[in-house]
Amino acid sequence: MSAKAIQKGFTLIELMIVVAIIGILAAVAIPAYQDYIARSQVTEAVYLVQSGKVPLAEYFGNFGVWPSTASDVMGTTAGKYLSSITITAGAGTSNLNLAVTATMRGTGVNTAVAGSTLILTTADGGKSWDCTTGSITPKYRPASCRP
Predict the structure, then answer these.
(1) 127, 134, 124, 74: which is closest to 104 by C-alpha?
(2) What is the secondary structure of 30-64 as a DSSP string?
(3) pLDDT tens figures, 27-71
(4) How far apart are CA 18 and CA 80, in angstroms?
(5) CA pair distance 130, 53, nearest whole angstrom
(6) What tens digit of pLDDT does each residue of 102-121 get?
(7) CB 131 within 8 A of CB 50
(8) Overall pTM > 0.70
(9) Alpha-carbon torsion, ordered 50, 87, 83, 143, to 10 deg
(10) Which of 2, 19, 74, 83 has its CA 20 to 30 A from that of 60?
(11) What are the CA-CA distances from residue 14 to residues 5, 42, 121, 145 (Å)?
(12) Smallest Cα–Cα separation from 120: which of 78, 70, 68?
């Protein structure tokens, strides 16, 4: 009478299959996670630059000209991922057009958005705003700022 041997543990092929599955999942998940990180960093820029819409419009409404710098009316012009917010067109003029540029930091951010810009513009004295221009790739912008 022969006794049957009881298998303990996993065979090499079973372990290789598990490793292959984990590799495939990682190959899909890592790029998706990197895109998510870039989008979240751009979101900070969008919220900070859009927080200036009301103060800028009020300044223009009160004085009839745009402020010389964004920091004249905005409390926060930099963030963890945002290097600066500057007025790049229309500063100090009574022209209805204004462009405010948010520039991402060059280091410490996702390489897909490092040093990129998002431009917030108005052509009617601050009544309506548009953020569909700048060098940030549209896939990293919130839906409201995609062309």
Answers:
(1) 134
(2) HHHHHHHHHHHHHHHHHHHHHTTHHHHHHHHHHHS
(3) 999 989 999 999 999 999 999 999 999 999 999 999 999 999 998
(4) 39
(5) 10
(6) 999 999 999 999 999 999 99
(7) yes
(8) yes
(9) 30
(10) 83
(11) 19, 43, 58, 48
(12) 70
